[in-house]
Design brief:
The protein has helices at residues 3-10, 63-70, 93-103, 119-129, 134-147, 163-176, 193-210, 249-258, and strands at residues 19-32, 35-48, 52-56, 78-83, 86-87, 104-107, 181-184, 213-217, 229-234, 237-243. It is α/β, with parallel strands linked by helices and 264 residues long. It has one domain (3-12, 19-258): Rossmann fold (3-Layer(aba) Sandwich). Strands 6-7-8-3-9-10 form a six-stranded mixed β-sheet, sandwiched between helices. It has a four-stranded antiparallel β-sheet with strand order 2-1-4-5. Strand 9 (229-234) and strand 10 (237-243) form a beta hairpin. The N and C termini lie far apart (45 Å). It binds adenosine-5'-triphosphate and magnesium ion. The site of adenosine-5'-triphosphate (ATP) has 14 residues, from strand 1, strand 2 and helix 2.
């Protein structure tokens, strides 16, 4: 068993200050015909247990690309992304399965719900795959559906739900797994302000009460004061904009607007 596997299965990260995920000079280029897109450039970032990090930045600035690398779904073209000290580019399939089932939960910008399954089944399935027992699965599924306000929509299939409801199901699915880290890409993009604040409030609670780590991208400046750290992503580079609960949300959004060079 490699060192990284041992770390994934055996090591308890909660309560320690060691980063659970680290990006070290991570860059991601996309090679197109006659053009290279530098989607993420030299990002160095630590994600520690019990930390709520938000990434803000204009469309096309590199947020999804970065989040996918932090999740191990994509690998840097240069630099590294480590999970508990192990380079995710070197993980084998078994290690990835472990990671996906137990450690990292992803909320996709496109929701990624299974169309033939009900809301309830969409939330429950990953727990079934991860081997969570039937009564615990049912308890957690009902609990998270209630938390996101969709207990009464449990039997609906995704096409019978509004965009915001589908989004809340995809959040419920990640939360129910109780991973150590949730990486959420625009998790409130389809939500009204009350529901968006509720979801960020839930994330805030989870990092405090369960020592989870959350990284969420957002365009919504009103949600930022719940985060511990805010990074602005600008042309693939990140800049730590604010640390702590009180954030000047206006300052946050000034910088991208001042620069028109970025593709939108
Ligand atoms: N598969 C790909 N091939 C080529 N270029 C890509 C690919 N995926 C993304 N890009 C480019 O990389 C840059 C960053 O894209 P990314 O999706 O990370 O942005 P984003 O910040 O998440 O934007 P949004 O807020 O619209 O979701 C963009 O310029 C995009 O066009
Ligand atoms: Mg995106």
């Amino acid at each position: 068993m490699s060192q990284a596997t041992e770390q994934i299965t055996d090591r308890e990260s909660r309560g320690t200050s060691t980063p659970i995920i680290q990006a070290i000079n991570a860059s991601r280029d996309y090679q197109l015909v006659g053009e290279t897109v530098h989607a993420v450039r030299n990002v160095t970032l630590d994600i520690r247990m019990g930390e709520f990090i938000t990434l803000v930045g204009r469309s096309g600035s590199g947020k999804t690309t970065l989040l996918n690398m932090l999740a191990g779904l994509d690998h840097p073209t240069s630099g590294q992304v480590l999970f508990e000290g192990g380079d995710m580019a070197d993980f084998n399939e078994k290690q990835f399965i472990q990671l996906r089932r137990h450690r990292i939960g992803v909320v996709f910008q496109s929701f990624a719900l299974l169309p033939l399954l009900s809301a309830y089944e969409n939330v429950e399935l990953p727990m079934r795959i991860a081997g969570v027992g039937a009564s615990e699965r049912s308890k957690r599924t009902n609990e998270v559906l209630d938390i996101v306000g969709l207990g009464r929509r449990a039997k609906h299939r995704p096409y019978e739900l509004s965009g915001g409801e589908q989004q809340r199901i995809s959040i419920a699915r990640a939360v129910a797994m109780r991973p150590n880290v949730i990486l959420a890409d625009e998790p409130t993009g389809e939500l009204d302000s009350v529901n968006a604040a509720h979801i960020f409030g839930l994330f805030h609670e989870m990092v405090i009460e369960e020592d989870m780590s959350i990284v969420a991208t957002t365009h919504d400046s009103t949600l930022l004061d719940m985060a511990d750290k805010i990074y602005t992503v600008h042309n693939g580079e990140i800049e730590l904009t604010e640390v702590g609960g009180r954030v000047d949300a206006d300052a946050q959004f000034k910088r991208p607007d001042e620069d028109d060079s970025e593709q939108d």
